[in-house]
Amino acid sequence: MNINTNNAKFEVSAVKPEQYPISNLPEVAFVGRSNVGKSSTINTLLNRKNLARVGRTPGKTREINFYNIDNKIFFVDLPGYGYAKVSKSKKSSWGEIIDTYLYTRYQLKLILMLVDIRHTPTDDDKIMYEWIRSCNLPHFIIACKADKISRSQVNGRLQDIKSTLNLDDKIAVIPFSSETRQGRDEVWGRIVKNIEIVG
Ligand SMILES: Nc1nc2c(ncn2[C@@H]2O[C@H](COP(=O)(O)OP(=O)(O)OP(=O)(O)O)[C@@H](O)[C@H]2O)c(=O)[nH]1
Ligand SMILES: [Mg+2]
């Protein structure tokens, strides 16, 4: 599949399934804690500075944002979970927005779960990953903010993430940085490979 990664546009924001794009294009979802770097990662993959809104305050992305990449795939930027300072009712409504999308969207073909390379995954991350594992969709892990640690720390951090999430050996964990663009080519390679496999 030949994707022009520079030909990307914002398609629509949605909170309810009726607002999702009417399309059969395969979708790649970005999930992870609030502030982990989902929107930044999307911008980096698309060579854009500000297509996906990046927050100085956690909890910036509160709806599902769909980005159309070259009319071949959609990137789906999901609201972050696990931000302590939002109210319980807001938390559950965001949870519902995420769950509804993940449970019902047949166009969803690949899930990218983002974690912060510096930190041991949280209980929320573990719950999220258990769900991803159970749904049997292709997925891999992006370990964000790799510019914030030294090279010598990388392997140890990856091991901690793998063991905390209890990952199978075949599930890749890719160090990534939106500052240095480390990991960009590998992530794109895996996206294209997965989308081709599923058709
Ligand atoms: N140093 C560094 N900072 C990053 C990186 N990625 C994201 N950030 C910063 O982390 C903060 C959060 O990034 P976002 O991309 O908005 O995170 P998000 O996961 O979309 O957050 P929500 O929309 O709140 O769920 C911003 O201040 C970014 O500039 C990275 O690779 N390196
Ligand atoms: Mg965001």
Description:
With 199 residues, the chain is of the alpha/beta class. The protein has a single domain, classed as 3-Layer(aba) Sandwich (Rossmann fold), CATH 3.40.50. Helix content is 34%, strand content 21%. The protein is built from five helices and seven strands. It has a seven-stranded mixed sheet with strand order 1-3-4-2-5-6-7, with helices on both faces. The longest helix has 17 residues. It is globular and about 45 Å long. The relative contact order is 0.18. Guanosine-5'-triphosphate binds next to α1.
Keywords:
globular; alpha/beta; 199 residues; 7-stranded mixed sheet; binds magnesium ion; Rossmann fold; binds guanosine-5'-triphosphate
Secondary-structure blueprint of this entry?
Blueprint: E1 8-14, E2 27-32, H1 38-45, E3 64-69, E4 73-77, H2 88-104, E5 108-116, H3 123-134, E6 139-144, H4 151-165, E7 173-175, H5 184-198
Parallel strand pairs: 2-4, 2-5, 5-6, 6-7
Antiparallel strand pairs: 1-3, 3-4
The structure holds guanosine-5'-triphosphate and magnesium ion.
